[in-house]
Structures are given as C-alpha cells and as structure tokens.
Amino acid sequence: MSDSTAGETDDERRKRGRAPDPLLPGQKPPVITVPTPVVISFWLWIAAGVVLVAGQIALLVLKQELTDGIIKQITANPVPGQPVDPAQIASGVNTLLWMLLGGAVTFAVLFALFAYKAREGTRSARTVLTVGAVFLVLVELFVLRGTLNVFLLVATLLTAIALILMYLPSVGDFFPKVGRELP
After folding, report:
1. Residue ranges in the chain modelled with pLDDT below 50
2. Closest Cα partner for 100 from 59, 161, 153, 50?
3. pLDDT tens digits, one per residue of 40-56
4. Do residues 159 and 48 lie in contact, with contact meaning Cβ atoms separated by under 8 Å?
5. How far apart are CA 48 and CA 120, in angstroms?
6. Angstrom distance (rounded) from CA 29 to CA 8
7. Shortest CA distance to 17 belongs to which of 130, 181, 171?
8. What is the separation of C-alpha 180 from the centre of its chain, rounded to a whole number of angstroms?
9. What single-letter DSSP state applies at residue 116?
10. DSSP type of residue 77
11. Is the separation of the CB atoms in 51 and 151 below 8 Å?
C-alpha cells in the first residue's frame, strides 16, 4: 500500500475509483454510508420485481378468460385456409403465460441482485439496471403494445423512478467513474 492511500476510508478509495481494502479473517467490514436516494432506489427495484411477478401470476389465474377471449376473436375473424383448433390455442396460451412468468421471475431476481450490488456502490450494476429498465420499456412499447397490463405499467413506472434516483447528481460520488489508465 502506498503512502497516498494509507489511512483512506473505503468511501475515499471508492471516489478515486479504487477497490476497498481486503478484509482479513475475523475483521468486520466497514460501514458504508449509502445515500438515501440509492436506498429508496433499491427498494423500488425490489417492488418492481414483485409487481412483475404478481402481474404474471394474475394472468395465470385469468388464463381461461384470456384463452376464451382469444378463441372468440379468432373465430370471429378467421384466417382463410387456417382452421381454428381451440385446444391448440389453449396450449399456446398456456405455454406463453408460463414463459412470461419465467421471464418475470428472472427479471425480478436480476433486479434484486443488481440493485443490491448498486446499493454497495458498484457502477456496473447501475449500468446493468439501466439496460434492464430500457429493455422493460421496449417490451412494453413494442411487444405488448396492444394490451393494457396494469402490472407491467406499474413495474415500468417503478423502474423509471428507481433509475432516476440512481442518476441524481447527489449520488454521483457513490458510483465512481474508474479511470482507464493502469495504476
């Protein structure tokens, strides 16, 4: 350890783009002061994941009504040359809903993991959460644009607020920019 870094706190090292000092066995980790917006953002990411999963569970509960609506719509406007098989439509809806639930659970777990890492001050975790939020917005705008999924809308709103909180100027020092030059 050089003289310029001797005696620095982990927060001071983080501001310089350096990793915290390693812990020896039996040492307790230092207490990091997490800015309030980052703490609020963490809980908003958790809430967004819970809302996403709850929305997909609600769709699974309403699976029969959804399937009946799709069958009714397809039989009212049949495509020439393609027969309507209600069993095949029901199977497709069932598969789609389970895949969407798997995707929602995956997003919820990733949101929780990277929000936790962002709460520790990891800049790359904030970047991954930004990409996840953008992907969620794109799915809502282009893939599910014809549906009114209140759960997805609420989750998107929560992620947008959480993302804004992570990019406030007051928390900029908590996510230090690491220099490109080697020490």
Report:
1. 1-3, 182-183
2. 59
3. 999 999 999 999 999 88
4. yes
5. 19
6. 14
7. 181
8. 28
9. H
10. S
11. yes
Instruction: Identify whether the C-beta of residue 18 lies closer than 8 Å to the C-beta of residue 102.
Output: no
DSSP sequence for 118-177:
HHTT-HHHHHHHHHHHHHHHHIIIIISTTS--HHHHHHHHHHHHHHHHHT-GGGGGGSPP
Report residue 17 as tokens.
Answer: 């783009």
- Give, as one character, the DSSP assignment of residue 26: T
Rounded-to-integer distance, Cα 113 and Cα 119, Å: 10
Question: What is the reported pLDDT for 182?
Answer: 43
The CA distance from 103 to 105, in Å, is 5
**Which DSSP category does 87 fall into?**
H
pTM over 0.85: no
The amino acid sitting at 177 is: K
CA distance 151 to 23: 43
| pLDDT recorded at residue 183 | 47
Look at residue 172 in the predicted model and tell me its pLDDT: 84
Per this entry, what is the length of the chain?
183
Residues whose CB falls within 8 Å of the CB of residue 92, separated by 6 or more in sequence, listed in order? none
Q: Which long-range contacts (CB under 8 A, 24 or more apart) does 111-114 make?
A: 111/45, 111/46, 111/48, 111/49, 111/159, 112/45, 112/46, 112/49, 114/45
Alpha carbon distance 99, 143 (integer Å): 14
